[in-house]
Design a protein that fits this description.
- The structure is a homodimer of 346-residue chains.
- By secondary structure, chain A is α+β, with helices and mostly antiparallel strands.
- Chain A folds into three domains: 3-85, Winged helix-like DNA-binding domain superfamily/Winged helix DNA-binding domain (Arc Repressor Mutant, subunit A), CATH 1.10.10.10; 93-135 and 233-345, 2-Layer Sandwich (Beta-Lactamase), CATH 3.30.450; 137-230, 2-Layer Sandwich (Enolase-like, domain 1).
- Chain A is built from 13 helices and ten strands.
- Chain A has helices at 11-27, 33-39, 46-58, 75-85, 93-102, 110-125, 178-192, 197-203, 205-212, 216-231, 252-264, 266-274, 323-344; strands at 62-63, 72-73, 128-132, 141-150, 153-160, 165-171, 235-238, 280-284, 296-305, 308-318.
- In chain A, the strands form three sheets. In chain A, strands 7-3-10-9-8 form a five-stranded antiparallel sheet, sandwiched between helices. In chain A, strands 4-5-6 form a three-stranded antiparallel sheet.
- In chain A, a hairpin with a 4-residue loop joins strand 5 and strand 6 (165-171).
- The interface between A and B is medium-sized, with 34 and 34 residues.
- The structure holds a DNA duplex (30 and 30 nucleotides).
Chain lengths: 346, 346
DNA sequence: TGTTAGCACTCATCCCCTTCGAGTGCTAAC
DNA sequence: GTTAGCACTCGAAGGGGATGAGTGCTAACA
């Protein structure tokens, strides 16, 4: 049996597989030949479907929980479904409306927008949503202000040229006076203006050094720890408890390990970071290299501001996820968020 | 039968009740007379215990799931237990050690300390923990810096005299230039220095007004929205999924409503705010005026800095909670956190 | 040669029934 | 007042059918 790539199933098998996946996504119950025969309007008898399903099982697209149950899709099936089969759903007018109404464009702070986005995403999909805040590494700086907090520590407020801000507590030499910090702020703001922080450290720092004289080392340390702080990305996760609505997580220990993993956030953060350059990515089941997520799928999209990718967001749910709907929602949300941010941060 | 206040059970009933509550807290299973007779070294036969248990049931301290099961404590019993019966446990050396090792005193940022505290609290108790960040209303200001972000918006960084910081994005008139903001920052910092923000708005504002002339209204608006932002208290919640370890939450829908409530955070925030003046408070079951929390108990303590209460933290778990241990841990953590903050923010 | 009806077979689920045992409440004796 | 004894209760656990959804195979059909 020659397997010239999994996409080369004949049309009929494709349609049967689609019917099975669609049904299983809705019901979470193994799908039998009779059901397929009735639901897919192909005019084939259950017996014929059975033969095809048997083939599909042999090819690894279907699995049988036990002899006399129906079939459930394998990961391979979901992969094929996502890549080649599924109807790429359009949002209904109601759904688009809902998003428009709940993403309040009057909000004027980036963090608030991020939180709203996560909330809407989770409410609409009924899965767990996550939204990464815009990444600084891609943005150009406008200003860095050092504000004295106590002897030996200061808060650095970094503002980008598109109006996103972030703060970092840093240590400063105790000898530095508030006025010194103000001077340094002005100096590094003048020098860094328009650069990205990462490159600034290398190319601009030497120039700064020559001007600050004895405080050169201190300034260098400060910039380094600012850069460190800024490279930490915040992720807003909402709706983790939605997972309990799905029967595959009715087992408390499975739910527990999912929720613990989500609460720690480290894996999700990694996925979002990794996905920050592909427009849309889908990880199905064990494609997540994390055993706690082996029964989950994670779908991410990037969002932009000023034509550049500056962050990503996504949805986590059971592998039996409504891929079409979620992908449609994510696409729409991505462009909504990009619009809002572009306006917000000009 | 005269009931002169629930605390007036005779000694023997108290000890029996204690044995039952202790056992039930450990096992989550109804406790029978034989068990009590064996475990409590009172040298009484099961039959005698049965008579007492019957009385305790009549008095409302015990409940019977069904005729042939043992008894479980009622809320009233937990209340009595907490108020009058339980041994106020001491931490073991191991536990105290664990806290010392994991509350890193070298951390120099308040938010980080809060997060660590919540993590340790949840890890040690295996319940859900929550820690409120220090409240600004009680603290005196040292500095307010306005940093231009984009036309029409600025970030206000507020620093208290004990080194706690918080930021707020605010709108500013588009006509204001960066230099104006700098001037205003210096002015309000000079005037507000040492005052609490709330009182400052009323007493200091008039003075400021006279000095800023035409910008008086703008400054007033700015201060008002800063005050608004600062009065929002952040709560760090950790370990929500721990609840799934307890059999009383093996029912998915119960777990779901608990987790949803916790995720929203609004009730917990309310509890922490309400509890901010009593050293330790315990809410058992329906004493929480929130139906989703009717099977939970919430214990809170306050923490201090510079001798003043500036925040609170707590633990949420099933009513069958290890009150003695949790209260001991909270007491210890409260003083640890107070110490750390007092040092950190001098 | 692909499609279909027919049929025996499998196996999880449901329901009923029994058994088991932990626990109670009552009574009578110590 | 305390305790042993005993009948009674009732949930939990376990053991069959009965049910029915679904399969795979075979033989007939177009």
């Amino acid at each position: 049996m020659s397997d010239k790539g999994s996409s080369l199933l004949d049309i009929r098998k494709m349609r049967i597989l689609q019917a099975i996946v669609d049904d299983y996504i809705m019901t979470a119950a193994p799908v039998g030949s009779r059901t397929v025969s009735k639901r897919s309007d192909m005019g084939l008898s259950p017996a014929t479907i059975r033969n095809e399903m048997s083939d599909l099982t042999e090819l690894g697209f279907l699995e049988q929980p036990h002899t006399s149950a129906g079939r459930i899709p394998s990961e391979k099936a979901y992969r094929l479904y996502v890549n080649h089969i599924m109807d790429s759903a359009k949002l209904t007018d109601d759904e688009a409306d809902y998003i428009k109404r709940h993403l309040d464009t009057r909000v004027h702070e980036v963090g608030e927008v991020i939180r709203q986005t996560a909330k809407v995403l989770s409410d609409m999909t009924n899965y767990t949503s996550m939204v990464m805040s815009p990444q600084f590494s891609a943005m150009r700086l406008k200003r860095i202000s050092l504000i004295p907090v106590s002897e030996g520590s200061a808060m650095a407020v970094v503002v980008t040229n598109n109006g996103v801000t972030k703060n970092a507590m840093i240590r400063v030499p105790e000898t530095l006076q508030p006025e010194d910090l103000e001077k340094i702020s002005k100096l590094i703001t003048a020098k860094l203006d328009g650069h990205k922080l990462g490159e600034a450290i290398n190319s601009v720092l030497p120039m700064i050094k020559s001007e600050v004289g004895e405080q050169a080392d201190a300034v260098c340390d400060m910039l380094t720890s600012i850069e460190e702080s800024l490279s930490e990305t915040d992720v807003e996760v909402v709706g983790a408890s939605n997972i309990l609505d799905y029967p595959e997580y009715s087992d408390a220990s499975k739910a527990r390990s999912f929720l613990t993993e989500v609460e720690s956030g480290s894996y999700l953060q990694k996925v979002l970071s990794d996905a920050s350059d592909v427009e849309m990515s889908v990880r199905i089941g064990t494609e997540n290299d994390n055993p706690d997520m082996k029964d989950c799928s994670v779908i991410t999209v990037t969002y932009k501001a000023g034509g550049e990718n500056i962050g990503s967001m996504g949805v986590v749910g059971p592998t039996r996820m409504d891929y079409g709907k979620v992908m449609a929602i994510l696409r729409y949300m991505s462009s909504s968020l990009s619009d809002i941010l572009s306006k917000l941060i000009k």
